[in-house]
Amino acid sequence: MVLRVVFFWRAAWVLEGVGCMCDYVVLPLLNSSFEPGRARELVEWGYSLLDEMREDYAKMPKKENDIKSILIAPSWQKDNIVDSCLEDILDNLKGHGYKITVRPHPQHVRHMPEKMEGLKERYKNDTDIEIQTDFSSNSTVFEADLMITDWSGIAYEYAYTTCKPVLFIDTPLTTERTYILKSPKQVNYDNVPLSLIVL
User: Fold this and answer.
1) In this structure, what are the phi and psi dihedrals at residue 39, rounded to the nearest 5 degrees?
2) CA distance 127 to 195
3) Strand partners, 187
4) Do residues 199 and 7 touch, judged by C-beta distance below 8 A?
5) pLDDT tens-digit series, residues 13-71
6) Which of 39, 73, 84, 113 is the most buried (most CB within 10 A)?
7) Closest C-alpha to 148, from 103, 84, 97
8) How many whole angstroms separate alpha carbon 191 and alpha carbon 189?
9) What is the pLDDT, as a whole number, of residue 133?
10) Sign of CA dihedral 57, 23, 2, 136
11) Are 74 and 82 in contact (CB under 8 A)?
12) Residue in 190, 185, 174 with CA at minimum distance from that of residue 4
């Protein structure tokens, strides 16, 4: 399992307690960062959004799609799929018998509405492409046969809820803040605000 943990490391020195998704990801990392001699309470609390999505999905009637459905759900970071390669992906997928739904990150919709309107205008005659900007339902996520994403956490929610595949597009990370770890000892936590991918 791969989980991303975003954390400003020096913040651990002033916290009295930290909510942990799971002890094997967070405990070894936080304990190495705490100020010596000061105890912290680490509370294992799980991932309530995933629990709710799995519960909703279990209640939903399942049926196989007549037309295979692809959901493109990018992150909000710089150089995400929408900003770097969405149009290339759509131009290559359209007309091949798929239903393609683009569900941009809500912050992208909020901060760049003109970009979303431009995409809707560009693909308005392509009946197999929908640019979705209404996030009131998870049905698009639940019904997709495949998700395409970059570094978005929705990949884990989709994969662990539906048990369906995720295709990752390797868009650039903010390399000065991201580290791939096999051991927490590989990073000097005192100096870096970081995004950790723990393998």
Assistant:
1) -75, 145
2) 38
3) none
4) no
5) 455 555 555 544 444 445 454 455 555 566 666 778 888 999 999 999 999 999 999 99
6) 73
7) 103
8) 6
9) 92
10) positive
11) yes
12) 174
Residue ranges with strand state E in the chain: 3-8, 17-20, 41-44, 69-72, 99-102, 129-131, 146-149, 166-168, 178-181, 193-198
Q: In this structure, what token pair is assigned to residue 8?
A: 């400003």
Look at residue 77 in the predicted model and tell me its pLDDT: 83
pLDDT of residue 161: 94
Q: What is the pTM of this model?
A: 0.72
By DSSP bridging, strand 129-131 and strand 99-102 are: parallel
Residue 59's CB: how many other CB atoms inside 10 A?
Answer: 7
The answer to whether 181 and 197 have CB atoms below 8 angstroms apart is yes
Q: How far is residue 71's CA from residue 99's CA, in Å, rounded to a whole number? A: 8
Residue corresponding to tokens 């799995």: 54
Single out the residue of 39, 40, 4 nearest to residue 21, CA to CA.
4
Q: Which residue has the tokens 């760049």?
A: 112
